[in-house]
Amino acid sequence: MKRSSTEIKRFARTDKGFSELSQLKKKNLSALVSKGKVCKDGFFSFSYISYEVQLNPIGWCVRRKESDFIFLRDYLRKKYPQHFVPPLVLTNDKSSESSLRKKEKYFSRFLINVLRNPDLRGSYFLQEFLNTENQEAFERLMEQRKKEKMPETLDKYTTLHGKANIKSKTKTWQFCSQIPSFSKNYERLNHKIASTSKVLVDQFKALTVTMDELSSYFDELGDLYKDTDQDMQDMLDINKSISALLSSWSDSYHGQSNILKNWFPRFFKYNMNEHISMIEIYNHRNMTKTQFAKMQTNLEATKNSLYAERDFDKWGLSPEDTENIDEIDKDEYLAKSKMLPEETTQLNSKKLLLNYLNNTLETEIRRVLKYNFKDLKGHFLRIADQMCQILTNTQIVWGDFIAHYVEEKEASSDEEYISCFNPIKRQKTFST
């Protein structure tokens, strides 16, 4: 096995997914999950939920059961325990129309985030999930995949190029130690955003109702002047105008309520669940760390005992070292480094695996957060576009009111009327 100071190269991959025939090597793939529905194959069969899965730009289109998505995630976790496998958010109400639409969004984000990872994208089973049209054939493939086991040694881990970064770095150890605290706060804050936005939706709805009610009062107040003489028609007009202003204000609240409802809870609920994936790879790394510490402690204790006993036959020395036993025995450090070579090699291999899992944990968290930045930016750019439309429509109504009544006041010769108000300075209207 060829080694350098920073990486170890494996002789063979355990997954053929990134062969020359794999079509998932393409970048910028996009998945869309839609058309969720409750299905039943026969009178005596159980109902199940299935979804249409499209992969673009390749053009694959299949239907998959909800349980297939769960199996895919479990398989990827088992096959690639060193990687961040995106969460698969489920809902308590499994078959309602609103629940199906929510899960379409969640499952789409799951597949998109899986495809963003080059190693996961190289999974041959992922390709089978996305392009096997016959459900019975796919279920046979799932049965075959159940036999696969989680890797235990470094040479069994699947990577894109068959290489693993095994260099130990202090900063990486420090980064990994902060993952539990980070993921806990990540979950807490995303949960707060999702739950607070739901509260705001109700508050904006209440404001909409209240503002509509206030608008109706001014509308009725204007109606009082319908049958009056011409001198009182201004009171009718201004009350109707104020009613229109408040109605536009209500429309603004209604629009903002819809933005909060459609763009906040589901998006941040998915983000909240990402802490599960963070902890999963952290726990896998920690399991290896615990195993290494236990092996190291036991091996050191055994070597101390063997050195004290001086029973050289139990040291497991090579023939060459056996010939030089007198010299080796004089140096305790040298003696312990020579004894039990097989167990020492196993310990060193476990250390290299731990270094690899450390490095991968840091790399994966940084990769995911980099994509989260792009998703968050795109998400709020779309929100900003809708918000600008709402505010622009409101501004137009209020701007028209200002234009009408300021110009009317300026044209009036009634000095007493003019002096009742502070002058209004015309401002440039906001344009997008």
TrEMBL record:
InterPro entries: PX_dom, PX_dom_sf. One of its GO terms (cellular component) is endosome. GO terms for molecular function: phosphatidylinositol binding. Residues 29-137 form the PX domain. This is PX domain-containing protein. It comes from Euplotes crassus.
